[in-house]
Amino acid sequence: DYPSLIMNTLVSMDNLKVKSVYTTDDEDSSSKGAMTLTCEVDGLTISIRTIVLEDENGNLITSETFEGKTIDVKGMVDYFKGSYQIKVFSMKDITIH
Fold this sequence. Notes:
Elements: H1 2-5, E1 10-23, E2 35-41, E3 44-50, E4 70-80, E5 83-88, E6 94-96
Parallel strand pairs: 3-5
Antiparallel strand pairs: 1-2, 1-4, 2-3, 4-5, 4-6
């Protein structure tokens, strides 16, 4: 199980096509506004999890920023509810094409 061997390791992936975005909307959660991007690359499905992201003016970055786009990411391999994902901590770690 390769992903378990690289838990908490910094990885990068390029040319991920964003297929859908789920935004945490629980009012009582500190993750309100964080997103999970379901992406595809070379026939693989990859989940990208963000923290709550803001732009340089402090405005919340929303799903519209990523939906249908191709992105490159840098983040940590993480595990949540039975699935591996790449966790991204800053908008600087996402390049949108």
